[in-house]
Amino acid sequence: MRKAFVWALGAIDDWTGSGRSRATGPHLLEGHCSRAREQCEKWAGSHRELLGFARHTVKTAAPGDPRTVVLPIAHFEILRRRLDDTTEPASKGASAYFGHPAHAAELAWAADCWLSRAWAHPTNVGTAHLFGAALYYSGDLDRARYVLGGAGNRMPEHLPWGLVSPLPGRTYRKVRRELGLR
């Protein structure tokens, strides 16, 4: 229902920041997340389109803008596709993917953009989990500790922890212990 509402507003018909989307809500997080999902490979998009959109979103976002979460969402979507094609443990695949220097650097950049002036937003806990997991698997433990410190013990239903483990709650608790978080 929300997705249909966003479409009805016309907020995602122009992603360059001009035209109708600028007038009707250029900062609609759900619209950006929906647009990212539509650019996924599984919906006839491509990793290149998805990452291009996510990078553009972060680049044009104001400091603290919750839309920066589109970048880790894009990377988790790509990771999901890669895990479908391998038999290696998902956590090992996540570490290899997020540990790639280019991925780690751009996720740190996006996290810093969000953290520089994070707005009070109802999605902040979910955003912290997405950034925190990506940063943790990239090996950026200091940023992961800082980000996940604000997430508390509440956990999203699936992403990101459910993608890397069949026991996401146990995995999240393990990560929090490793990072020295209660």
Structure classification: mainly alpha
From the spread of the alpha carbons, the general shape counts as globular
Largest sheet: none
Total helices: the number is 11
Radius of gyration: 16 Å
Terminal residue distance: 37 Å
Measured by DSSP, the beta-strand proportion falls in: under 5%
**How helical, in percent, are the residues?**
55-70%
Q: Which runs of at least 5 residues are low in confidence (pLDDT < 50)?
A: 1-25
Order of helices and strands: HHHHHHHHHHH
Calculate the mean pLDDT score and round it: 80
What is the number of E strands?
0
Assembly type: single chain
Note down, in words, how this protein is organized.
The protein is an all-alpha fold and 182 residues long. It has helices at residues 2-9, 20-24, 29-38, 47-60, 70-84, 90-98, 101-115, 124-138, 141-149, 161-164, 168-178. Helix 5 packs across helix 6 (90-98), helix 6 (90-98) packs across helix 8 and helix 8 (124-138) packs antiparallel against helix 9.
Features:
182 residues, mainly alpha, disordered N terminus
